[in-house]
Input
Amino acid sequence: MVVRMRHNRSQVRQDRSHQALKERTLSVCSHCKALHLPHHMCLSCGWYNGRQVMDLEAEKAKRDRRLKEKRERIGVETGAEHQPAPVPAVETKDEKQPKEKARKARGAAAKRLKDESLSQSEIGSN
Ligand SMILES: [Zn+2]
Output
């Protein structure tokens, strides 16, 4: 940062003194007395400025019907194409053991090599 742009502590704190979030102001609905955003339709009854501007129950029914139709459509489509996935073969212990054995054998071999190299270096140093 260029020194010319540097803010001192006081400037930073003055700036931050205005960054606090303010509580939302809410209005009381004249129809159902619920809280709603000022200059917005009441979301619990659909009234604004003393009259009903949206029939929320009808909208909800419409939405439910649409979603139900969509669900049925998807269900039909997947029902026709969907085949039950083949059950993945469960790995039994018999299948697992050779791998495990091989790993153990490799570990043992590595350890043996390490020991041998250690003993050789000991021999070399002596
Ligand atoms: Zn209301």
About this structure: The mean pLDDT is 81. The first helix runs from residue 9 to 16. The first strand starts at residue 27 and ends at 28.
